[in-house]
Specification:
- By secondary structure, the protein is mostly helical.
- The N and C termini lie far apart (36 Å).
- The protein is built from six helices and two strands, in the order H-H-H-E-E-H-H-H.
């Protein structure tokens, strides 16, 4: 339903106001970006992204209130997981072949 790529896409839409621009920034086609938006909009209780067609005023997209909430919860979850796993991540990092050159 939501993972790092989709969360980054939501961030990009929030930042650019455009599904196409957010997708381009991630080296993703508009078709792929739109497909991911449709998946997210269908998976939750309401749409995460609202879009308007182009025309004289131009089109655009933004996150709904639900979209903002879902993204905020997801980012909070990422932060909590990173904090909880910092020691384990550090232990794996220390086992890398070039760990000394990274420090």
């Amino acid at each position: 339903m939501l993972g790092p790529g989709k969360a980054d896409l939501l961030d990009g839409i929030r930042r650019t106001g455009s599904i196409a621009a957010a997708g381009r920034a991630m080296s993703m086609s508009y078709k792929r970006a739109w497909s991911l938006v449709e998946e997210m909009n269908a998976a939750f209780r309401g749409p995460l992204v609202r879009s308007s067609r182009g025309g004289a005023k131009g089109g655009g997209a933004d996150l709904t209130e639900l979209g903002e909430a879902v993204l905020r919860h997801y980012r909070d979850l990422e932060d909590a997981a990173a904090s909880a796993c910092a020691d384990r991540i550090g232990a794996i990092h220390a086992l890398l072949r070039d760990a000394e050159s990274r420090d």
